[in-house]
Amino acid sequence: MGVYEAGGNGSIGTTTATTCNCYDMSLRCWCRWKWGNHQQQQQNHHKLLHQRLVSHVFSYGFMFFLGCLVLYGSIGVFYGWLMFSKPYLRSTNVGFGLNSLGCQEDNEGSWSIGVYYGDSPFSLKPIESMNEWRDEGAAWPVANPVVTCASLSDANFPSNFVADPFLYVQGDTLFLFYETKNSITMQGDIGVAKSTDKGATWQQLGIALDEDWHLSYPYVFNYLGQIYMLPESSQKGELRLYRALNFPLQWTLEKVLIKKPLVDSFIINHAGEYWLFGSDHSGIGTRKNGQLEIWCSSSPLGPWKPHKKNPIYNVDKSVGARNGGRPFVYDGNLYRVGQDCGETYGRQVRIFKIEVLTKDDYKEVEVPLGFEEPSKGRNAWNGARYHHLDVQHLTSGKWIAVMDGDRVPSGDPVHRFILGSASLAAVTVVAVVLGMLLGAVKCIIPLNWCAHYSGKRNYILLGWERSNLFSSKVRRFCSRLNRVLFSVRGKMKPSTWFGKLVIAVTFVVGVALMCRGVKYFYGGNDAEEAYPLNGHYSQFTLLTMTYDARLWNLKMYVKHYSRCSSVKEIIVVWNKGRPPRSSDLDSAVPVWIRVEDQNSLNNRFKKDPMLKTRAVLELDDDIMMKCDDIERGFNVWRQHPDRIVGFYPRLISGSPLKYRAEKYARRHKGYNMILTGAAFMDHTVAFERYWSNEAKAGRELVDRYFNCEDVLLNYLYANASSSQTVEYVRPAWVIDTSKFSGVAISRNTNVHYKIRSSCLLRFSEIYGSIADRKWEFDGRKDGWGL
């Protein structure tokens, strides 16, 4: 009791205080010891991590994995250089219509514009079917597309694409208004072009309308002598009407018609009222690209009253609710153009006949357009989609239309990036598997990720993993994956032939994945496009000569070349045996089979009224090359239509004259002959010369030897001009398919060359020698001599 009480006077309190201080000191000492121990553990842990990192980095397995990636990467770089580098484009831009600022790859697409003609809106044919001829650029016929991003970019208006075309007709002059995506601001502006030759050629006038927001769908119409434009300005949140101050380049805002972000709107006069069609995608529950609304007014200037049935549509985007161009009247009926956005944005246009349009009701039914679907895939300028049509009736009674098109679906660059990334990720997996099979990599999944791992682990993390079911399952999966691969390696002994085969196949799979990834990243949109010349595209006829024993070659030939962009049609000269039917051939263009009475090589150059193009590509049925090489050769011929432009050069020289292979021409750095087994020519010139009286003796010699028809044509060209008459273009690669079918015409090379040497001597006597002519290989067209 006394002690307790003494606590009250402070003596015992002092003792207590002392006791507390001792406790506090012991606690501090203990904490200091723990902290020091903890620091030591951290240092040891960091040191251990460093040692493990160094051991992993410099381990044999890691170095093998890194070496595999370097090897695969080198293969990918070589493949990319071999397949996708085009030095002939880098060395010269002559005629290719390229601008460094414009025509950049865009996620919205690569839209361009084509022109169509017809006796009605439902019988439209592309401009190339009209055989419009323009001497500039040897464009015969002029072919679609007629306006592209290059058209604007070359006129100093950088553009990524052009779309949403609308025509405005003033007498014999056509004005074309369209959306152009500025390559610098990445914003849609309204461009305008003019044509005085029914749409065959277009002069780019400039930018008609440029605001601080995106513009598209420039619907142009006339009202009371004034010209108005109703572009889409949904980004601004309102529908704005502009009036021309100085047509076609100066416009002023006339009025804001509706305070709603309407897209793809137009105004028409029907039954004494004005009707405004448009889509509002901003509302809650609105289905994008599947909504349509209508308004009514007594004037295009408003005020506008909504239709009682609004929204007219709020359906699936494939139905065609969204407008796709100007409505038109035909045979007293009103038609609306809609766009189907089902598979991708702007997949195709659809036509609807409006049966009822009143303030209380609206009804329409779909009718076929009669438009022939593109069949060349991405090689066609509109092969993937076409989403806008403006068709108008001319005073001549004919109909003219403009339509946009794209060769790739929406979002193609992003899609290719994802696939390319996935391919490269798969290559890393293949490298690990390859190392596992060879024993260089001990495990695919790190051991500390696996269940039943006996090494050191963090106790807190271990406790969390035990309580986490998903983590436990992942670790068990990793363990099983490692065990499976160990088991596979145990059964597949690398030293056996089977083991070597598996390793080889695995390596090849990695190479294929790497090449695929490189193609997705650097191969572009996988289209082999035509090359414009002076802003024009054109087409040519493909002509080949064959017989029944080479039908296998012909089928493969037609399937491949018919899908080249500039091929208009194919003519098959059938020299012997029972000819196939055109339907037996898988072709994207018309195929005409011309059966000959006599088996003669002279038939190759026979005049044919079926020829509708100025350019003819004489191409043997056993030659396979890329469409891009064909298109490049066609572009070079269009620059030199008076020459034979081809892919097989020869140099005729020596005394006496001797026929030699291409290596001789390469070694002597020049050529003076192009073999017509793969060559472009103007058939109106070439065939006329070949069947002239002057060439009669040469034709008789061709029939006697059953050889030398191409040599004869070269002599006839050389005899007609003292300037250069042949031009060489080197292809990226060529495959001779007759080597696989065993039906090569010239099986004995020595005999073949001997006959041709005889022809050289005889033709030189008749037409004069060509040995004194020689032209050096041009690296710009060669593509390899840089």
TrEMBL record:
<comment type="similarity">
    <text>Belongs to the glycosyltransferase 64 family.</text>
</comment>
<dbReference type="InterPro" id="IPR029044">
    <property type="entry name" value="Nucleotide-diphossugar_trans"/>
</dbReference>
<keyword id="KW-0812">Transmembrane</keyword>
<keyword id="KW-0472">Membrane</keyword>
<dbReference type="InterPro" id="IPR015338">
    <property type="entry name" value="GT64_dom"/>
</dbReference>
<feature type="domain" description="Glycosyl transferase 64">
    <location>
        <begin position="540"/>
        <end position="775"/>
    </location>
</feature>
<dbReference type="Pfam" id="PF24793">
    <property type="entry name" value="GINT1_N"/>
</dbReference>
<keyword id="KW-1015">Disulfide bond</keyword>
<dbReference type="InterPro" id="IPR004263">
    <property type="entry name" value="Exostosin"/>
</dbReference>
<feature type="domain" description="Glucosamine inositolphosphorylceramide transferase 1 N-terminal">
    <location>
        <begin position="103"/>
        <end position="406"/>
    </location>
</feature>
<dbReference type="Pfam" id="PF09258">
    <property type="entry name" value="Glyco_transf_64"/>
</dbReference>
<protein>
    <recommendedName>
        <fullName>Glycosyl transferase 64 domain-containing protein</fullName>
    </recommendedName>
</protein>
<dbReference type="InterPro" id="IPR023296">
    <property type="entry name" value="Glyco_hydro_beta-prop_sf"/>
</dbReference>
<keyword id="KW-1133">Transmembrane helix</keyword>
<feature type="transmembrane region" description="Helical">
    <location>
        <begin position="417"/>
        <end position="438"/>
    </location>
</feature>
<feature type="transmembrane region" description="Helical">
    <location>
        <begin position="497"/>
        <end position="515"/>
    </location>
</feature>
<dbReference type="InterPro" id="IPR056442">
    <property type="entry name" value="GINT1_N"/>
</dbReference>
<keyword id="KW-0808">Transferase</keyword>
<feature type="transmembrane region" description="Helical">
    <location>
        <begin position="57"/>
        <end position="82"/>
    </location>
</feature>
